[in-house]
Amino acid sequence: MLQLSLPFLVSPQAKRPVIRSDFIHEKRPLNLHCLQLPPSLFISNSQQHPYPTLPFPSPATQSVAAIVFGDGSESRLYPLTKRRSEGAIPIAANYRLIDAVVSNCINSNINRIYALTQFNSTCLNSHLSRAYSGIEGLGHEAYVQVIAAYQGGDDKGWFQGNADAVRRCLWLLEEYPVSEFLVLPGNHLYRMDYQKLINAHRKSKADITIAVSSASRNHDPGFGFLQVNSKNQVLEFRLRLEEKPIDFVSVKSSTNFSDIAPNGFPSMGIYLINRQTIKGLLEEHFPTANDFRSEVIPGAISKGMKVQAYVFGGYWEDMKSIEAFYQANMQSTKNANLGYNSFHNIESPLYTLPRRLPPTLITDAVITDSVIGGGCIINRCKIKGAVIGMGAKIGEGVIIEDSVIIGSDVYIRGDFQRSGMDIPVGIGKETQIRNAIIDKNARIGKSVMIINKDHVQEGDREADGYVIRGGIVVVTRDAVIPDGSVL
Q: Would the pLDDT of 117 be above 90?
């Protein structure tokens, strides 16, 4: 039986709330268990072999292994990443960002998934280990293995970048006879069948295939911009250096092509690389390179390796800003075929950690166009176009519009008695919230106005419990907003 954790989707078109509940996916039966097993079973120090290394004990047969990166040293989603990595940020009430990428792998029958983590990774490591500890129905080899950063031996420092991380973990990644490695950012939101990418890669006999977006031609090319010909062969790679906005890395392939009529596409930061190619690039050609985007990929192109582009035409959001994260959440409240629609997609479902939460309790509330997570207590209030995360507590007379309430993981009564604070976790009575993001376990007092009344676009009031990014008020995790405050 397939266990999914789906939020409630409330639609005003229905006479009663439309609740999308758990379902069975007939095509790929899967069971995501929440097993209380020792963390050492799933989280390994990449310096030594964990014991046991795998939750499934048979020889490998899968030909592609995915390498997922769930974090980075610098984040564009701060303060949501103050205590968690980007991949661990909650989205659409019940999920975390990294669930989208792991689900793509599962739905594409990629059974061997390695998650390389380092910065603010405690929450991410716990989520991955608990959510994907037992993946049944995909064969006895299926697993997600978390590989934490390490220091030791000849490696005195932490991972210096994604390429450095892969290089230092090759001893583990090469344990099984896979033919290609699929390198994936873990904080992007999109739905892709990776088998199509793999088939295109093998058909073209490429050394490296880079996924590019045809739907984001005006997108800020944070992963570089590719010039390709009619056969999708990469002619040129151009990358803006973030630390030097006016400087660019630009390389052209040394291969002579008969067809040089270029088309331009932004890279998605997704790379399918042959096993021997990635080993040669990281250990022989560029043994000191730290980053795939700015060093390894341009280097491979300049050396004349066969680098192909795979054109992806679907929705893709790389979460480049707080505004992008906010809009992705808002789109999850729409029961329509726009944006990322896998939150409610039966054919390509989104998996996550099953929770043991009580049903959401709604008392005389008016809720329209909203997504409600499990375990909430919602009293007499009005909610419109909002995402209400798990365990949220909303008081009487509250008005919430076009906002994201990430929720909480504590109960009001017990938490109130332990803390001795006057303001419990949740949203206090008569509070109004509009165009805002309220992070986990925030304490919002009574009669608070979080409406950005002065229409400020950017503001740093973190000491007071909030910041403003792109006109969106972000109340930080564990913040306390006193009664009667106006933000």
A: no
Domain count across the chain: 2
**For residue 192, how many other CB atoms are within 10 A of its CB?**
24
Does 313 lie in the same domain as 369? no
> Could you give the percent of the chain with pLDDT greater than 70?
74
Distance CA 34, CA 15 (A): 35
Q: How confident is the model at residue 242 (pLDDT cuts 50, 70, 90)?
A: low
381 and 325 part of one domain: no
pLDDT above 80 (res 135): no
DSSP, collapsed to helix, strand or coil, labels residue 163 as helix
Q: Is the same domain home to 360 and 293?
A: no
pTM reported for the whole predicted model: 0.81
pLDDT tens-digit map of 315-358: 898 888 999 999 999 988 887 666 676 677 778 888 888 888 89
Is 56 a domain residue?
A: no
Integer Cα distance of 177 and 60 in angstroms: 7
What pLDDT is recorded for position 254? 55
Instruction: Say whether both 192 and 86 belong to one domain.
Output: yes
pLDDT at 8 over 70: no
Q: Which residues, in sequence order, are CB contacts of 464 under 8 Å at separation 6+? A: none
Q: Are 475 and 450 in contact (CB under 8 A)?
A: yes
What is the CATH classification number for the domain harbouring 251?
3.90.550.10
The residue with greater pLDDT, 127 or 47, is 127
Residues 367 and 327 in one domain: no
**Domain range holding 460?**
355-481
Helix ranges (H only) for 40-176 are 97-107, 122-131, 162-168, 170-173
The answer for residues whose C-beta is within 8 angstroms of residue 229's C-beta and 6 or more apart is 235, 257, 259, 260, 261, 262, 263
Same domain, 312 and 441: no
Strand order in the sheet with 370-372: 8-10, 370-372, 387-388, 404-405, 436-438, 472-475, 466-469, 458-461
- Give the C-alpha separation, 252 to 236, whole Å: 4
